[in-house]
Design a protein that fits this description.
Blueprint (H helix, E strand, L loop, with lengths): L4 E7 L32 E5 L7 H5 L2 E3 L19 E5 L3 E5 L5 E5 L5 E5 L30 E8 L5 E4 L6 H8 L17 E6 L5 E6 L14 H4 L8 E7 L5 H15 L8 E6 L4 H10 L7 E2 L8 H19 L18 E4 L3 E5 L1 H8 L6 H14 L1 H7 L7 E4 L2 E4 L4
Parallel strand pairs: 1-3, 2-4, 9-11, 9-12, 12-13, 13-14, 16-17
Antiparallel strand pairs: 1-8, 2-7, 5-6, 5-8, 10-11, 15-16, 17-18
């Protein structure tokens, strides 16, 4: 089963909780705090792997989660970091944010990876909070939950030549003749139900990667037939090979239909080099029509996928065209530019009917990792807000005693410094 589009939810592993512990040893009074930190949670990555050709594995495992960090222990024992999770996808996979439909990664090379969800930070043990004024802190941080994201993964196969044609134009026969691919071939329309990829060997150890998609019919760009669902697979190709049956009533009209559907699907095809091959020359009636039909095309090739006639010349021409495009695409790397650092405010405050809402990564993390069952931990959070300047900012915005302050999913009550 070929799957080229799926949704997947990824969740980073939660960080382990810090430990609140004190050294208790014979003849060692007031040994002091020795609670260890919790381990960080494992992150989730997408990684391009050439061993994979479909997104089938993601379809049946639609939620991937990083391993949680281990909780800290006494005697300054820190918890183990959770293992990262790698989601293997075929090269050519496009990762989109499911909510905004924004492309966040395009994994075209084998081994390329994208950090999909960060693991949560491990909570600090009470040994981390020792100060000159508080020699025996009796609280520790909770582990931070991992990041939770929803993605859409689309596969666009990576090929150098894309086959375009109506159903039964002979695309599968051509692919089987020039590569080791074995697509289904039959005498009825829409024999090809999923994209096929093949590698055509040429002399001097040269190869040409060719992609075949289901036949395109008029209205495919509007969702008719099967071609619309798979047109994305030839978006990456360097050359388009139009295979047109010489037995068609009007081959020029067929070419116009194909070009129109490609143009409606995407603008990327507007300047893509096009090569035309008039197929099924093994039929005598078709061969007789070639001289009449050829003037409607730009230097068309007369071929037969069944007998192999004209195929070698066509492959050499395709190779030369692809190689020329490769040379044109080669550009020296620009000199490395200085990195610009952009200041990001630590928090943002919004006035609401019930009080105020505070947003900001540092503020939300501090709240999530606080144990609200421990009064000392709450006092520590209050001091952190003071150091951040959050309490002064709320006061300037008119916050009054008892106002509700919403931070993430937690509601707090405002008290002046």
């Amino acid at each position: 089963m070929f799957v080229d589009r799926t949704r997947i939810r990824v969740t980073g592993g939660a960080g382990g909780n810090g430990c609140c512990s004190f050294r208790r040893e014979k003849y060692v009074p007031r040994g002091g705090p020795n609670g260890g930190d919790g381990g960080n949670g494992g992150s989730v990555y997408f990684i391009a792997d050439s061993r994979y050709t479909s997104l089938l594995d993601l379809r049946y495992h639609a939620h991937r989660k990083g391993a949680s960090g281990v909780h800290g222990q006494g005697s300054d024992c820190h918890g183990k970091t959770g293992e990262d999770v790698f989601i293997h996808v075929p090269p050519g996979s496009v990762i989109k944010d499911a909510e905004t439909d924004e492309i966040v990664a395009d994994l075209t090379e084998d081994g390329a990876r994208y950090l999909a969800a960060n693991g949560g930070r491990g909570g600090r043990g009470n040994a981390r909070f020792v100060t000159s004024v508080n020699r025996a802190p009796r609280f520790a941080e909770k582990g931070e939950p991992g990041e939770d994201r929803l993605y859409v993964v689309e596969l666009k196969v990576i090929a150098e030549v894309g086959l375009v044609g109506l159903p039964n134009a002979g695309k599968s026969t051509f692919l089987a003749a020039v590569t080791a691919a074995r697509p289904k071939i039959a005498d009825y329309p829409f024999t090809t139900l999923s994209p096929n990829l093949g590698v055509a060997p040429l002399s001097d150890f040269r190869t040409l990667t060719i992609a075949d998609i289901p036949g395109i019919i008029e209205g495919a760009a509007e969702g008719k037939g099967l071609g619309h669902d798979f047109l994305r697979h030839i978006e990456r190709t360097k050359v388009l090979l139009f295979l047109i049956d010489l037995g068609d009533e009007d081959p020029a009209a067929t070419r116009a239909i194909l070009e129109n559907e490609l143009a409606q699907h995407s603008d990327v095809f507007a300047h893509r080099p096009k090569v035309f091959a008039l197929n099924k020359a093994d039929v005598s009636e078709n061969r007789a029509r070639f001289d009449t039909v050829a003037p409607d095309f730009k230097n068309p090739f007369l071929i037969s996928g069944a007998t192999g006639e004209g195929i070698d010349e066509l492959l050499e021409f395709l190779w030369a065209t692809v190689d020329r495009i490769r040379q044109d695409e080669f550009v020296e790397e620009p000199p490395q530019q200085d990195v610009e650092f952009v200041f990001e405010a630590p928090f943002y405050i919004t006035k609401t009917e019930a009080g105020f809402e505070v947003k900001g990564k540092a503020v939300q993390r501090a709240v999530i990792m606080t144990n609200f069952d421990n009064e000392e931990a709450i006092r520590h959070l209050h001091k952190r807000f003071q150091r951040m300047g959050l309490l002064k900012a709320l006061k300037r915005m008119g916050a009054k005693e008892g106002d509700t302050i919403v931070i993430g999913e937690t509601e707090l009550e405002y008290h002046a410094e």
